[in-house]
Structures are given as C-alpha cells and as structure tokens.
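Training component of the fellowship. As part of building independent skills, the fellow (R.M.) carried out the full modelling exercise for a liganded target. The chosen ligand was iron/sulfur cluster. The inputs are recorded below so that the supervisory panel can assess the work.
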Amino acid sequence: MELWQEMIRNSVSSVDHLVEKFSIERETAEKLDEFFQARINPYYLSLIRYPGDPIWLQCVPDIAELEDIDSQEDPLNEDDMSPVPNITHRYPDRALFLVTSQCGLYCRFCTRKRKVGDQSKISMRTLESAFQYLESHPEINDVILSGGDPLMLTDNMLEKIIFRLRQIKHIQIIRLGTKMPCVLPHRITPQLCEMLRKYHPIYVNTHFNHPWELTDESKRACAMLADAGIPVGNQCVLMKGVNDNADVMKDLMKGLLAMRVRPYYIYQADLTKGANHFRTPLKVGLEIMDKLRGHISGLAVPHFVVDAPGGGGKIPLLPDYVISRDDEKIVLRNFKYNIYEYPEINGDSNSNNADLFMRRKKIRRRTVNKKDKIRKINIPVLNNS
Ligand code: SF4
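Fellow's submitted model of the complex:
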C-alpha cells in the first residue's frame, strides 16, 4: 500500500471520531454522518491551527449543514444533463467524465455530495457506456476526468481510462479535476507523473482555497506536475469565514503563481443543500476582484464566476469599469479609480475585425476549390481596419 492510501485509511471518518476529536454531540454527529460522511486524512487534519479556522471549516462537519433543508441536492442540474451514467454533457465541445465517487477529503461545501462517497452513484461498471458516448460524439474534444477525485484511482486504473480516451481521435485535451495536490499531496508521485506525461496534452485543475494550504508538500506536488509538462490551474470557491477577504485571496493567488499554478476561477459558492452557510453576497466577490486586478500580476488574477443555477454554465462577473458610454466615447475607470475617456470609432458595427476574418476565411475556402479564379476574388477592406 502506498503512503497516500495509508493516509486515506487513517482518516477521521466515523461518528466516534467526530465526537472525540471535535466534541460534536453524538446525536448531531450521527445525523451529520448520515447526511454526508466525514473524511479528513491526517495530512489535511494537521493543517488545522485552531477550532473554526479556515481549514477546519472546510472539512469538519457542522450542525449548520443540517439546518439547510430546503436547498437542492443538484443545483447545477448535472444529472439532467447526463445522457449516460458517468457523463455530464453541458457545453458543446466538452464533457465531464465521472470516474470514481471517492476523494482524498470530503469537503463540507461539495456541490456533488449527493454522489461523493457512494460507489453506487458513480460506478466503474458503467464506464463502458461513457466511453461509447464519447466515441460517438465527435464534437467533444475536451474531456474532464472528475468524480470524486480521479487521483483516488490507482495509477494502473487511471492509465487504462486515459489510454482508452487516447484511442478516440477527436479527443484532444484530457483534464484531471483533482484536489489531491492540496488535500493529499503525497498522491503526486514520480510514477504517476511518468505515466501521465505519456498522454499529453494533459492538464490538471486543482483546488486550493486558502494560503495555509500552500505547504512544502503541496509545492513539491505541483512542481512535479509542472516538471512533467502538465499545466496546473486552480479553481477556488469563495466561502464565508474561509477566504472572503481580499488580502487572503491576494496571498493565495500570488502563492499559487509562485508555485507554477495558474489561478483560473474563483467560484461563487453554489446553492447546494447543506452548504448555504458558506455563501457570501455577490458584492464580496466583486470587491475581491477589484482588489486583485491591477494590484497583482494579471497572471495571478482568476475569473470570478457564478455557476448558473439550473445548469446554465459558468457566467463571469466583473466589477464595473465602464462609467458611461455613447456613440462618441466610453468613460472608464482604472484600478486606482482614475477616470479616462476613450474615443469610440465610427463605423458599421457589423463590419468588425472578427467579421472580416471570417469573411476572408470563407473566401479562402472557396478559392481552394477554384484555384484558377484566385485572382478574381476581391477581399473586402474596411475603413477601420
Ligand atoms: S474533492 Fe471535490 S468532489 Fe471531493 S468532496 Fe471535495 S469538492 Fe467534492
């Protein structure tokens, strides 16, 4: 057994553990265990500095989860967008492929807690129908392995899945959505990296939420992935009491960039049952973005997004930088709240550069078929080009 597997085995997970370690009343602990079981591995447990701190809040069951009874279990409508078991197909050219129900840590804010930890909900037995779906949909060129956490699979099992995906010619990008570099960095081994690098392009999206999670171990894990040629991005969730503070977010984003992890998204917390106590007003996220953009390197500034309830997908939100606009000018403010006027350009709004590019592309395609007439074709030129 590898070290990371031993650490999973030694996790805090039972009702007895909850009572002994966190002084939760037994009756409450039983209800919490039934609602969404705990799994806190020894590594992540060691990051807790005091009760109720940002690490504790993310992993220790809380009675507030039981008071949130009216919210939905699947607010993003993933199950309705699942044409076959294990697949969610929401965006035109991408698909989410759930390969395990297990995770290195069970996060109390998880939006997929209706499935996580329950092997009957994400089964290995139904992988074949998922592969067949991907094979028969040539529009899908990007597959995100998720779960659960795909790095809970052994290297051998994970390789079988990736190998099979690589036999599907229209799949170009394989992404792993994994929290392991943050919650159990020991899972990132030289053997894993050697295996993954055979199947490029492979991307990893990981999930750090607080600067205290940027430890020597997690830095080493991310460096190993980067050294294997795997671009690593970070998706974090904005949560009350965890990271709803611009200075905390600034430290997190700068720290991630320094360890070669590119901040990618800050998610507004989903409306998931049992997790609404983590939600913050939207203005908190916008204020944080206002204090990031311009103040730290653009490379460290993620997109702030709301994952639209009902399955509308990610919608980016930006602070207001436009003060006013008319046909003549646009009035903008910069990150220091200085005001600038930018003159608008006159012209047909239908004839922008993107349209010109597409029209040229169409014309070029026609010329391939009619090589003898190439010189007779006029490419339209715009006044403002
Ligand atoms: S690792 Fe991801 S899927 Fe697993 S419990 Fe945490 S948020 Fe949910």
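The panel noted the following from the submitted structure. Residues 353-369 form the longest helix (17 residues). The chain has 14 helices and twelve strands.
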